[in-house]
Write a structure and sequence with these properties.
Length: 658
């Protein structure tokens, strides 16, 4: 019996020792001298938990084995002993559960200490987190982010807590293992998970994670100072910058500013510990410095392009201007342009020279920042000063050359002016001898000849204008030729006379064939009056010229005007055959006034206008006779409808109106 008691005590002591060992085998292993990445930490804990789980499983099996061996002693005893045995098994189960609970508690406390530290000290760096500039959203600017992210880090810690608790899920209740009957009690790992103390520790871990996440986000804001470096679109900014056409000093300041910004970035702490997180900012700093380099490259590239264009424009200006100003003028226009260009270039020499310094300044800035310049541009830059000297020498030489050419052209112009006078006299003589002053000339031929004379006149006027403009270059005032002006006036008057003559002839050609009875005398008279006024005005202006065409056309129109009253008399509706016979007797010519051949031309041909007074008298008499006839006809019609009431008068054989 004593031996049995001793074995029982020995077994109970062994179980307690195993339970103690189980409570001490923590499911968290944290090396205080090491910082983990999230994956390293997760893998390390998983490996440790698997190892500890294996050891816990062995101890748990040892306890079950001891219990089974102990039970062999009491296996054959009665129900009361069996009842005590079952209570003992439950007690051992509670001991094992408590050992597991202590293990979980201590494991979570270890994790909480790593997260929150203890009252005496802050936590050591547990996780190593990279601070990066993340650019993973097309169309949006990059952003500063943690790697791993805070959400992923929180998930890692949370998964470790869950794994710690789930490690115990493989362990069944002691009575269930001994009796091989499923226990009605809550599984050990669930019971521990619902423990208030365990929940409190888990809350501390979660709180520590949340607090530090806020601290980490606040830390990110310290980099907002450099936000414009990565947020501003470089290409768009450079395009706007170029449109402002900035001075070279602005380029220097902006390029230097990014050097300063890059230096400030390098001065920022690379490694920063915030609670249990050790931040490594080297990726972010590298990205920011790279952005600064890109900004500098954008500015230097733009400066290089602008400087190259400015250099090319300046060198081309020197070359083109030199070629133009040294060109020997062959015409007066070229001489004028050459003199004007020379004066312009001489006046703008200071302004032109002032373009050189900014070009050198731009390339000095590029050299300062070690920008590689194209070989062709470098060669052009090195030759620029020589081109400037050649340009100045060309101006001096062209001044001498143009002075000689001016004297040559001046002499030529004076000679041309004398020749122009001779041509003018010749043209006037040609006008006086060939001009269509006689009315015997055909109208179209006259106008064609006038056109020829006017072309000759215009050529002389153009030559005169060219000579005057040329002499004006030499400050010589050449007045307009009075002879050419007078010739132009005479030619204008002569052309007007022939144009009116042509219009008259066209009107006469239209009227003369018109039937006598359908002539529009009022329209014809108004039109003829317009022609007469024009020719009468010309005859007054040209009374000293004695041009036959003016007087002849005027007389024709005047003669035509005289026929208008005659036409009116002849078209008098009172005219009867006896009156027409009287007219035929007066003119002593026979004609049929009712035929289609009795036209205006026929009337002129018969010379009726020469007897206009007699015809007018006959027409007037016809009008009076018509009036008498109409009066008699009226009396006749009156008597035809009038009734007379007569009565005898005193029986004397007479009657009177009643």
């Amino acid at each position: 019996l004593q031996l049995t008691i001793d074995e029982y005590k020995s077994s109970s002591l062994a179980i307690k020792q195993y339970a103690y060992q189980m409570s001490e085998m923590l499911l968290v292993l944290i090396d205080s001298k090491r910082t983990y990445s999230d994956k390293e930490f997760k893998d390390a804990q998983q490996a440790h938990q698997e190892n500890v789980q294996s050891k816990l499983s062995k101890l748990h099996k040892e306890i079950v084995t001891i219990m089974r061996q102990t039970y062999l002693v009491f296996k054959s005893d009665g129900s009361e002993v069996q009842h005590y045995w079952l209570n003992y098994a439950r007690k051992v189960d509670r001991t094992v559960e408590e050992a597991f609970r202590l293990n979980i508690k201590r494991s979570l406390l270890e994790l909480s200490k790593a997260i929150n530290g203890d009252p005496k000290s802050t936590p050591n760096a547990l996780f190593r987190v990279m601070v990066t500039l993340l650019d993973d959203t097309p169309g949006s600017p990059p952003r500063v982010e943690f790697s791993p992210t805070l959400a992923r880090l929180a998930n890692t810690v949370n998964s470790i807590s869950i794994q710690i608790k789930n490690t115990l899920s493989i362990f069944k209740r002691i009575p269930e293992l001994l009796t091989r009957r499923k226990s009605t009690l809550i599984p050990v790992h669930q019971n521990i998970e619902n423990d208030d103390e365990i929940k409190k520790i888990q809350g501390m871990i979660n709180g520590g994670m949340a607090t530090n996440a806020s601290n980490l986000q606040n830390y990110l804001k310290t980099w907002d100072t450099y936000r414009e470096i990565w947020e501003i679109n470089k290409d768009s900014f450079i395009r706007r910058y170029q449109r402002l056409n900035p001075a070279v000093s602005s380029f220097d300041a902006d390029i230097a500013r990014y050097t300063e910004v890059a230096n400030n970035v390098q001065k920022e702490e690379t490694v920063v510990q915030i609670q249990f997180v050790l931040l490594d900012c080297s990726p972010l700093k590298f990205s920011l410095v790279q952005h600064c380099n890109e900004w500098q490259n954008k500015f230097t590239t733009l400066l290089s392009e602008m400087a190259g264009h400015m250099l090319l424009d300046f060198c081309q200006f020197l070359e083109n201007s030199r070629d133009k100003v040294t060109h020997i003028p062959l015409t007066l226009e070229q001489l004028t342009s050459g003199v004007q260009l020379l004066e312009q270039l001489q006046n703008e020499l200071p302004k032109t020279e002032a373009r050189i310094t900014p070009i050198h300044e731009q390339f000095n800035i590029l050299e300062k920042y070690e920008f590689q310049i194209e070989e062709s541009v470098q060669q052009r830059l090195e030759s620029m000063n020589g081109e400037w000297i050649n340009f100045q020498q060309a101006i001096v030489e062209s001044e001498v050359m143009l002075k000689k050419q001016k004297e040559k052209f001046r002499s030529g112009l004076i000679h041309s002016a004398e020749e122009l006078k001779k041509k003018t006299h010749s043209c006037i003589e040609d006008f006086n001898s060939r001009g269509p002053f006689s009315s015997s000339v055909n109208t179209d031929a006259a106008l064609a000849l006038i056109g020829e004379l006017r072309n000759n006149l215009n050529l002389l006027k153009q030559e005169e204008e060219t000579i005057r403009n040329g002499l004006n270059v030499f400050k010589i005032d050449q007045p307009l030729s009075k002879e050419l002006q007078n010739l132009e006036k005479d030619l204008d008057f002569l052309q007007q006379a022939w144009e009116v003559t042509k219009q008259w002839e066209e009107s006469w050609a239209e009227w003369k064939g018109g039937k006598f009875s359908s002539l529009q005398t009022q329209l014809m008279e108004n039109t003829a009056m317009g022609y007469f006024r024009k020719m009468n005005k010309l005859s007054q202006i040209l009374k000293d010229k004695n041009w036959d065409i003016v007087s002849a056309t005027k007389n024709k129109v005047q003669q035509f005007k005289k026929t208008m009253p005659l036409i009116t008399d002849l078209r008098n509706p009172a005219m009867r055959d006896r009156h027409w016979n009287n007219i035929k007797d007066v003119v002593q010519k026979l004609f049929d006034h009712m035929s289609d051949g009795f036209t205006l031309e026929k009337i002129i041909e018969l010379g009726l206008e020469q007897h206009s007074d007699a015809i007018s008298s006959i027409s007037s008499a016809a009008t009076k006779e018509l009036s008498i006839e109409m009066a008699l006809e009226a009396i006749k019609k009156t008597w035809e409808v009038t009734d007379l009431d007569l009565m005898p008068y005193k029986d004397k054989g007479h009657f009177k109106l009643r």
